[in-house]
Amino acid sequence: MRAQPKASHYVGGSYLESQTGTPFDSFYPATGEVIARVHTADDAVIESAISAARTGQEVWAAMPPAERGRILRKAADILREKNRELSVLETLDTGKPLQETLIADAASGADCLEYYGGLAATLTGEHIDLGGSFAYTKREPLGICFGIGAWNYPIQIACWKAAPALVCGNAMIFKPSEVTPLSALKFAEALTEAGLPDGVYNVIQGFGDVGARMVAHPDIAKVSLTGSVPTGAKVASLAGEHLKKTTLELGGKSPLIIFDDADVENAISAAINANFYSTGQICSNGTRVFVHKAIKEQFLSRLAERTSSAVLGDPLDEATNIGPLVSRQQFDKVLSYMQIGQDEGARLVCGGGSAQVDSFPEGYFVQPTVFADVRDNMRIAREEIFGPVLSVLDFGDEDEVVARANDTEFGLAAGVFTKDIQRAHRVIGKLEAGTCWINTYNLTPIEMPFGGYKKSGIGRENGHAAIEYYSQIKSIYVEMDGVEAAF
Ligand code: NAD
């Protein structure tokens, strides 16, 4: 097994094996090859992780913030030094092409560690003048945070949760998705190598039941989940029962609106990035592409032409643009939506089924697919598919397209293409989405808060905003005079 880790879990600064955990395999989606076998966390592992995190957090929170920042920045350097090795591992675990993982996974994790490492020494409270007496505030950690990952950006998600949590003085226990259990362990190794005290960052493996046990654990102060809306509802309800703080980064069905004055080639580039990058397995994807009637046919013919030039194939070949879907389950789900689109009467412009790739007969490859003449009530326009299925819907009027774009339970992201500066800001102002782009799509620099409106989530990751979700404010009133009492 070519990616077998030293052990399943990482607790207290070293690898740890479960004695009674259930074994499960990680597969290379291009071939179906088993690349690693790990075990779910049993009670002993969970309790070891909690105890290590408790000890580690005390040491960590007592360190000067500038020193904490230095360790995070060192970890960023280590991820960059090991970028190729980590990218190959991520490609094996997810099937995403190396062309992408080399720039978008460990590298974006490193950006995140560097950013929060830089913020470390700037996190301060305030002084409040009360006329003689005064108050001040302190920003304090929450304690032990529990992170739950999805499988599409495993190491990036691990970093997006760990860096802001750690910079605020918390410890973290992270459960990667059972589909992609490997890179979080390598990230934990990098943190230890950078000088992170033992126990501050721990990784445990498991399915949803391990996640739920941790959410309910009395020593967990906060839960941060990246996953689907149904899982988010379960986690929120369990966390609510125990009154835990939560951040939820969930799914979407985001609109990308292209007006008739847009630069069409750029808009097509954005639609490609918004639907086919990572084989369409991105939460913020702009899967409902609203194209103005006046440019629709021009848009569709160029989109089909450019899509036909995409290179599907060996994910480890850097020339490959599109790899397989992550799993058999995802493969079956995406194919079923390709069929549903045709059954619903959408016009198939290109793709529409599985793809045969030489030398990879067992791979979960599907064709990048474009549907046109999609109507708002079709399932392919309403439900998150999480695969390379792009739906083009046409429109004629600004108010109409805004209303239709907002007619969804999701609100993760949105994009607008137009050269009219006032229209761009006016439309973005009306869209019910947490993360928006004007004249581009799906860029998520760490400096910019990321998260959803409506059912797409609660809270924000990235930017200064994430600090609010990993710290609590203590207000302290200081009396400079006597104390009056009624009797
Ligand atoms: P999922 O909801 O199936 O699983 C996510 C994680 O939750 C996994 O680690 C899983 O083990 C865990 N889990 C499942 N049930 C649980 C429970 N009851 N309690 C605690 N944990 C539980 O999602 P997925 O299939 O891994 O990922 C795809 C989904 O994630 C898509 O909907 C996508 O939009 C979303 N996503 C969102 C973002 C974002 O930032 N908004 C980013 C990536 C993916």
From TrEMBL:
Binds 2 potassium ions per subunit. Its EC number is 1.2.1.8. K(+) 1 binds at S26, D93. Involved in the biosynthesis of the osmoprotectant glycine betaine. Catalyzes the irreversible oxidation of betaine aldehyde to the corresponding acid. It catalyses: betaine aldehyde + NADP(+) + H2O = glycine betaine + NADPH + 2 H(+); betaine aldehyde + NAD(+) + H2O = glycine betaine + NADH + 2 H(+). K(+) 2 binds at L243, K454, G457. InterPro entries: Ald_DH/histidinol_DH, Ald_DH_C, Ald_DH_CS_CYS, Ald_DH_CS_GLU, Ald_DH_N, Aldehyde_DH_dom, BADH. One of its GO terms (biological process) is glycine betaine biosynthetic process from choline. It is an enzyme of class 1 (oxidoreductase). Dimer of dimers. Keywords: Metal-binding, NAD, NADP, Oxidation, Oxidoreductase, Potassium. Pathway: Amine and polyamine biosynthesis; betaine biosynthesis via choline pathway; betaine from betaine aldehyde: step 1/1. The active site is at K161 (charge relay system), E249, E249 (proton acceptor), C283 (nucleophile), E461 (charge relay system). HAMAP family: BADH. Belongs to the aldehyde dehydrogenase family. NAD(+) binds at G149, A150, W151, K175, P176, S177, E178, G251, C283, E384. GO terms for molecular function: betaine-aldehyde dehydrogenase (NAD+) activity; metal ion binding. This is Betaine aldehyde dehydrogenase. The keyword Calcium does not apply. It comes from Roseibium album.
